[in-house]
């Protein structure tokens, strides 16, 4: 008996790559213009990696940042191409392990939901509580102060997030978890680039967080890393969860066109057996 596995990228799969790059740039630029303390510029990369594999995800992530710079609207972006490539790589391995489709324990989905909504509440409060100093720079309150001043908000956010995770996003735990892990890795890789190439100021909404950590006495590298550990895990968890929802909404007939979303296809060739 001979087993044959067919693989490769069809036209539908290949068409996803430029679409993913466009999604990255469009959403990322909108977030940058709005000066939000996140990025959301890797949704297309995660989607491509999840459906087409780690190496395609890596290439899509890197190309997104390079093209973003070449078209002239985000000059710093190409410096972070290695970070985008790593995000695509992680998404690809997660997709290969079917973590965007494999059911997760409901308790894990509840934990991810609670963390997500609590982090979202923190970012919203940071955004609406920001002020400017005499020089026109954005000043953010500390996260600890916001939590101490609004304990009920965070308790409600945790409870609602856990309920959403447990009852609605019942199987999303793995996607959210790998998003958190990817965010931590992205923060570690991006911090030296942000600190030593740009002095912590890249023109993104996250600059306000860097400034806040600098004002607390941290050096530039520590401030860039602290900003990354605040923004990146939430940002990547959001991106991975969005991709999870996208994949869950796609019909199986379409998913079968993507290598990571279909089981190995096998054909069996049987030979005749002669006996005396």
UniProtKB/TrEMBL annotation:
Positions of transmembrane segments: 12-34, 46-71, 77-95, 107-128, 148-169, 176-198
Keywords (A to Z) from UniProt: Membrane, Transmembrane, Transmembrane helix
Name listed for the protein in its UniProt record: ECF transporter S component
Organism field: Kouleothrix aurantiaca
